[in-house]
Each structure stands twice: as C-alpha cells, then as structure tokens.
C-alpha cells in the first residue's frame, strides 16, 4: 500500500486482516518508496494513491510497469476527474477505485487485478466508456509528460538554456534540471540535442 497518510495505510491493513487470503506485506509513503517496495517485495498487488510527495502515483505506476511488470497496480484515490483516470490507465494501472468506495469493493478490486483482470469503479467505468464511444480528441504531443515538463521541453526546443528556463518559469535551476532529467527518461532520449529534434518535429519550440 502506497499512501502518504498513515491512517489510510493502517485502514487498509485492518481491512485486509479481516479477510482470509490477504496479507499487507509492506507500505510506502511516497511514489519512489512504492517503486522500491515493488522491486524488493514483489507483491501480487500494489494499492497506490495518486497524489503523494515527490514522485506521484501515476509516475510510480509507470516506473513499476518498467521495473516490476508482474506487480499489478490498483489506484485508490479521491480523484475522479478525467485527466487522473486516463493518466492512470495510460500508466498501466489495472484498477481504479475511489476512496469513498465500500470496503468490499476495494477487496473485490484487489482480488480482480491479482487474478489478471482489470477493474474500475462504476463511475470510472462509465467515464471510460463515454470517452471510448465518443469522438476521439487529438492526443497532445508527449502525453506522458506533465504540463510543466511540456513547458520545459517547449523552452528547450526554443533554444533556451537552463538558467533562462528557470527565470522564465520562476523556479530554481535545480528544479529545471530535475524536470529535464525526467523528460529525457520519459522520452528515452540520450540528451538535449535528441530531445530538441523530437520536440521540434512535434511542433514545439516557441519560447513565447
């Protein structure tokens, strides 16, 4: 279980202890710790919150899909907006349940993804069906990046250096460096030059 609130972790542990065949083998308070736990503990299912300090649950889910693909991730979150739901699905989450769900629904979701199924709460399922049956909007370039990372990539493609990007966005140089490291990893590029080529080919590069 990965959640930055201890009471949620304790609550899930109590819920699982009341059901035969379930065991909480570890907990994590942030996304990076969740990834490490997935690698070292290899649980059947990792129940993940979305909003956590440092690495988000979405980014952690994507990384777990790369380093521990046998670990099934279920999102247990308060967020039911389209962006969060579809970002989780794209990241590889096999389940998405709201924290207001009945305890039995949480257990059912864990059991389903452990068995190789995908499960989403009723509201989430309706939203997904509406999205899939409706007109498909154009997919934004580099959808795997966060909005801020896309801003940084756009400025990189526009020829700005790290210091200029930091000044433009009003953040520290180190923050820009962290964004760039994440961008390179997500785009799987070797360096700045390759990132610029990718970005400009997608129409980015306007420094504003």
From TrEMBL:
Residues 138-203 form the HTH luxR-type domain. One of its GO terms (molecular function) is DNA binding. The modification 4-aspartylphosphate is found at residue 49. Residues 1-114 form the Response regulatory domain. The lineage of its organism: Bacteria, Bacillati, Actinomycetota, Actinomycetes, Propionibacteriales. Keywords: DNA-binding, Phosphoprotein. The keyword Cell membrane does not apply. This is Response regulator transcription factor. It comes from the Bacteria. PANTHER family: TWO-COMPONENT RESPONSE REGULATOR.
């Amino acid at each position: 279980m990965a959640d930055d609130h201890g009471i949620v972790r304790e609550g899930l542990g109590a819920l699982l202890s009341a059901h035969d065949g379930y065991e909480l083998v570890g907990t994590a308070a942030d996304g990076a710790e969740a990834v490490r736990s997935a690698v070292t503990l290899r649980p059947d299912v990792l129940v993940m919150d979305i909003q956590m300090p440092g690495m988000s649950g979405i980014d952690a889910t994507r990384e777990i899909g790369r380093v521990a693909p046998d670990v099934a991730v279920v999102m247990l979150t308060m967020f039911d907006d389209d962006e969060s739901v579809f970002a989780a699905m794209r990241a590889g989450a096999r389940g998405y349940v709201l924290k207001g769900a009945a305890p039995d629904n949480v257990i059912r979701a864990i059991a389903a993804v452990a068995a190789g199924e995908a499960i989403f709460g009723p509201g989430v399922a309706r939203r997904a069906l509406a999205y899939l049956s409706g007109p498909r909007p154009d997919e934004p370039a580099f959808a795997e990046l966060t909005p801020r990372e896309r801003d940084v990539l756009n400025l990189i493609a526009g020829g700005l250096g790290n210091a200029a990007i930091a000044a433009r966005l009003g953040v520290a140089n180190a923050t820009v460096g962290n964004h760039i490291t994440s961008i390179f990893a997500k785009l799987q590029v070797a360096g700045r030059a390759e990132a610029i080529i990718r970005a400009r080919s997608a129409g980015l590069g306007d420094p504003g």
